[in-house]
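Practice set, problem 2.
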Amino acid sequence: MKCNGIHVASGEQIEISFQDLIQHVDPLLAPTPSDVYISPGWIDLQVNGFAGVDYNSPQASVEQIGHSIREMFRTGVTRFFPTVITGSPEDMAAALRNLARAKEQLPEGAAMEAFHIEGPYISPEEGPRGAHPARWVRPPDVDEFRRLQDAAHGHIRLITLSPEWPQSPQFIETVVRQGVVASIGHTKASAEQITAAVDAGATLSTHLGNAAHPVLPRGNYIWDQLAEDRLAASFIVDSFHLSRSFLNVALRAKGLERAILVTDAVMPAGCPPGPYRLGEVDVVLNADGSVRLSGGSRLAGSALQMDRAIENVIRAAGLNLREAVSLTSRNPARVGRISSRQRGLVPGERADLTRFQFDETTQTVRVVETYLDGLRVFPG
């Protein structure tokens, strides 16, 4: 297989030869006018659902999950971490078991690179807990995690938890030794607790700037994470979760090499506005694109798509196209420990490719083709 385009990092017109891995990347000997860019396939480390399918529901069929993945390919995403949030031990295990079955049975299953569990070991306090159900929040438990990992057939690679629990440092040390990325999120932890978590092996902050008290003291868990250079950070750039000023300050504090874009998409993403149910929670997808708890103003995930996230971060933070794409390709590959995806468009890397157009005037992205392991998956 071969395809060509403008290398998103160098601006050079290139031709890529590939099977399941990239074999050659060569400059075009006779470049022709082109407005199609090519980049490593985009990666999303936090997707709770998409296109009407809730990954937290054990009742989601394999066919429905396959449909949601094919819809995600339209947005340029080639690999993602389906995300299971706080719930009962039985429901979380059932959801993970269902996702593992889909990953192993679907032709598109390779796109489900690994799984992310967000909770249940988070802050029980109103504010930091976010939209997670309070009755199922609990302290870290290594034995329970092993049961969840067994249900997931070993596919859990990212866990979001709060360092405020006394058990957190020991728990983090244990899961990190097993190859799982530990991320700080939904927390009210002190500076000392955050440092202890990082010393134990935590390397990421989940959707930093969200899931917090409405009023914070001058010194707080958001600034403590921003100041910790050993932590990368993910950001939901959908115009609702973060103010433009916070996003700019956060990107400067972390540096672009330690920042990643996530969508935190939930089941209504890609669907018409209206009421929806996410597990135990009723939500509304509003006409403005925000997803909020029914009858209130609190955000409950997002309806963001990764192509729109790239547009938004360019507009809000003044990034150029190369910088914006790195936040959804090489950076999440490194943070999420995705093998053969961390060096960019070079021979030997997986042939996950996104070809897209970018309008400089309107700063809009249109995905043209998506390849997964060398197979064209969009258009299918």
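Problem 2, part (b): a different protein.
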Amino acid sequence: MIFGVDPGLLAGLFAVAVAAGCVDAIAGGGGLITLPTLLLAGLDPVSAIATNKLQGSAGAVSSTVAFARRGLIHWPAAWKIAVAAGLASVAGALCVSLLPRPVLDAGVPILLVGIALYFATARRMSAEDATARMSPALFALTWAPAVGFYDGVFGPGAGAFYMIGFVTLLGLGVVRATAHTKLANAASNLGSLALFALGGHVAWAIGLVMAVGAVLGAQIGARLAIRLGARLIRPLLVTIACAMAIRLLSDPANPLRHAVVGLFFAG
């Protein structure tokens, strides 16, 4: 036993974290792989979410460093966006019990499908920047904290929401948008992780092993994203957004699923 955990289980979780970190660095959605795995490993839902935040934070920071080394992050604007996202995620985590969860359960899959359709059909998905529709300062005051707050409350699809903001509102090319998304993701993950850690919900032995795997996977994913650009990022964004929507709708408690089933049988 290592830290009271079976070595075989730790090795499996490490491998899963490597794969998830790679996917997450390119298009987000690595939690689709790691969170169910943590639940299958025997963690209770709160501990699984908290531990997933630990490994996800490590992966996001790792991919941010990889992108930053290539000069793909404009720090004078990016740090303000990251701080806004991080603070908002803490506020979201504190307010989680006050917001209508059924509305999020029903609405987020629809938004994710919309994002998938946008990235699948958008004409401008290249490495070149376009004209921004708002200033970075306004983005830091509006879009970034809105997504950060959502990440603290709920989480699935936050990376896709950041990405569409950087592309459509700030006009960033797809690789630079991915780089800035990873930074914002890292900030909002770290914000909510701090609260989970204070609450004693993180399974540290498992989380730290997975964090090492996520760091490794994120480095691989970031390099692939930089090298292949839109050819890789675009299809993965579409696939991950659809996969997250399907995953959310697969929950028997999802009110949108109930509504669709009700309409089907009523017809």
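Answer key, part (b): The radius of gyration is 18 Å. The chain has a mean pLDDT of 85.
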